[in-house]
Amino acid sequence: MxxxxxxxxxxxxxxxxxxxxxxxxxxxxxxxxxxxMPQKVFELSHLPDFSSFAVIWKEGYYKSLLHSLGLAFLTxxxxxxxxxxxxxxxxxxxxxxxxxxxxLVVLLLFVSENIRLFGWFLSLMKGGLLxxxxxxxxxxxxxxxxxxxPVIVFGMAYVYFPFMLFPLVQGIALVPDxxxxxxLDLGASPARIMFEIEMPLAAPGIVVGCLLTFVxxxxxxxxxxxxxxxxxxxxxxxxxxxxTYAQNWPLGSAxxxxxxxxxxxxxxxxxxxxxxxxxxxxxK
Length: 284
Description:
The chain has 284 residues and is mainly alpha-helical. The chain has a single domain (52-279), classed as MetI-like fold. It has 15 helices and no strands. The chain has helices at 2-35, 51-58, 61-93, 97-108, 113-124, 129-138, 149-159, 161-173, 177-185, 190-201, 203-218, 222-226, 235-243, 249-271, 276-279.
């Protein structure tokens, strides 16, 4: 009976396995293949020479990687601090009002990321919406906050806010109210309850939210281009330039592969330590 169920499960999942192989695994193999090709070739028929990885170090592309990872870590930390109180309220306090907040946040996703970021660009630029209103109402003017790294982090936090919020809500919902009440009865402080009870029990949601935010932020490019104005060059910008303007597919593939491997290592280590069945609501 168990063998029959396993076979049936495999046959049921076979179409999605094939789809993943064709749409996800195969492109990664092509990228990996091009990453070891000689510079500026457009076929995989050449002998590999791994020269692209030497170019990454020689030309200082690793600095762009550090920029991407640093901005991603900072965005993830800020969003966790911002989203935790709201997620706690949605899971434990607000009741039906949580549905209203959910709808409002989801509505943001119906608008293109680039359009939303361009709206902020028009609002924050010199002579833009915010400065125009401030000059008209209060007679004051200020320099544009655009074209520096804090506004890039702001843009990333704004765009990836839902990807931190909803996993945190799911994780906090896993925390039993009885555990918190018992700790209060035993005299535990609110801070101790949060750090020693709520956060450990909500760890699956915390890990998923942080990983989603980090991986998406590490691969972001629109925020740095529209709001940062190339004041900070991120790795994805170098990848785009290598594939388009430079017509150097091996270099672009090597840069992509480097980011993919680092993101995969950062993601797989914590994912291997959490119970995904619990956060997805499945029972054994």
